Fold this sequence. Notes:
Shape of chain A: globular
Oligomer: heterodimer
CATH superfamily of the largest domain in chain A: Periplasmic binding protein-like II
CATH topology of the largest domain in chain B: MetI-like fold
Shape of chain B: globular
Strand content of chain B: 5-15%
Largest interface: A-B, 52 and 49 residues
Largest sheet of chain B: 4 strands, antiparallel
Strand order of the largest sheet of chain B: 1-2-3-8
Amino acid sequence: MKTGKLIxxxxxxxxxxxxxxxxxxxxxxVKAKGHIQCGVTTGLAGFSAPDDKGVYxxxxxxxxxxxxxxxxxxxxxxxxxxxxxxxxxxxxASGEIDILSRNTTHTLTRDASLGLNFTYYNxxxxxxxxxxxxxxxxxxxxxxxxxxxxQAGTTTELNxxxxxxxxxxxxxxxxxxxxxxxxxxxxxxxxDVLTSDKSQLAALRTELKDPKSAVxxxxxxxxxPLGPVVRQGDDQWFNIVKWxxxxxxxxDEMNVSSKNVDDLKAKTTNPNIKRLLGTEGDMxxxxxxxxxxxxxxIKQVGNYDxxxxxxxxxxxxxxxGSVNALWxxxxxxxxxxxx
Amino acid sequence: MAGPKNTVAWHRNPLIRGxxxxxxxxxxxxxxxxxxxxxxxxxxxxxxxxxxxxFLNEVAPxxxxxxxxxxxxxxxxxxxxxxxxxxxxxxxxxxxxxxAATILGVTVGIMRLSANWFVSKxxxxxxxxxxxxxxxxxIMFWNFAVFLPLLPGPRESLGGGGFFLNNRGTYxxxxxxxxxxxxxxxxxxxxxxxxxxxxxxxxxxxxxxQTGQILRGKLIGFGLLAALVALxxxxxxxxxxxxxxxxxxxxxxxxxxxxxxxxxxxFALTTYTAAFIAEQVRGGIExxxxxxxxxxxxxxxxxxxxxxxxxIPQAMRVIVPPTISQYLNLTKNSSLATAIAYEDIVALWTGxxxxxxxxxxxxxxxxxxxxxxxSLMTSIALNIYNKRVQLVER
Lengths: 339, 394
């Protein structure tokens, strides 16, 4: 009996030493389990937050819905995993999730050393500051000597240090683990200033006890391009997520929306729209998907503008004239052509 | 002593068998660990994740607010410095927590045994409330629900004359050396005074043993210390100047700052751990047999002498071992600091540093080693003490 157990243990260890057999691609694995596992925030209004029934909504959640629609023809074949800023990359690298869509900034270190690939951007943000109105501060340059609340594990920690060092100013960081603790600390007076991405500031400000007691300063001190991330080493899956995002941005540019997509699919003579909706060419096949991949994503989730207006606009962040407008309308969103 | 010649075959010799079994087990464990390590590294490389200790020498690109003994210069200090600051801050809150929890725990434990009904009920209520609520909840409660809302903002700070209290922390005047001679004389006077206390104490203890005469050597020693310090100050001038904190644009600047998160964490860990220590003190005292109380009483000892000379020394044997594990618990519980923004090793190292470098494996392993060493050192020190208070059996 004893030797029997020993042999079992030895065999188990041998199994460990053999290289892990993961020949299946992410697409095959996703199809086999029947859903996409999508990593999102623990709750950030406008980006990914569950409602009272546990259904996620937000512009980050919409990316996963769109990929599910493109892969399965059904946007609801997604399961969400809420992650803190600290957990997110490990969850993706270990295979716990298939897509990380969690307002994550694209940086060189993350791209090159963590085994990740950044696809494209679904929201372009920048770091700002929220200050108690009673302090009478008009600009970031006046913040020398302030205590600044900030969330751990974000690029904002680095931008903050860089900015103050460059401008020869001093600050004391007050670093909390979660976004909720950070807001609570600011609200209760543990710090003078709260810094984060501007979209988050807008959301956090609405959750303060008295939103009017705080103002968001006009300056933006950093570039924060946010977008979905996949594991490195699976180019097919990387292409799928990237091109679903490009497809909804192209749809926005060509004025194809969830409302007129059926109509256009039947009647349009525009070859660009025909290629997008799969009635001409075999774009879907090249990605390993069905011909109506983009049609399903647009029909069920909407084009980029629909996603934006539904989720981000209610935070008071207008798209017109912002960097998140299309390149043709003064913004920087620019999707390569589908052809 | 020559016994019969060993006729058992070597492979049936229990000693050889024992050694062999141990050897096989050690080899299996070593092989298992090295396989897991090699496998992890290979898999991480296959996934394009870079690991290595190189990041320790990189400049840490973020700010740190609290580091009383190690200098942190933004843009110059490395990740290794951040690591040491984390250890330093964990030790600070643990040491002060252990000292305060011991004092409070012993007091409450003795109160619980008090003959006064009211006093003993207060102690019971304290223990039952504090040890039955999860410690994370208590930490967040004291920080977010009590201290932050209760204390005024920096502009309305309480106190004056160099001592201030507000919802950012406690501010004290900082001693600065201005006159080097006066400073040296001051420390010399203190050193001499301490030697005097020790010598006089030893002398009077021996005298008491030999003649029964009580000499109060310690008291004379302390008087001598005070006299020496006063003399040094009169002759050479004040040993320190004091730099008082002043209100800046946002916060107090200058002086010594004890940040609120440190205070809140220390307070919560102290009150939580003291409840457990109090129960151990009570249990230890109750474990001393009634006969000892009665015998000491029959000798005519006062209550304080009875406790100090007879009961406590015997109770210590029961109290010390479980208290060691309470000290270890306090140290480990200090890792909850990150919830209220105190910069301990978990917040600085497995929080901020892990995120900025992505070196999860190495950073978590280093943190594990730190807690392991802190715990081992605490238990070694206390085990030595425990040996001394244990009953010497002859």
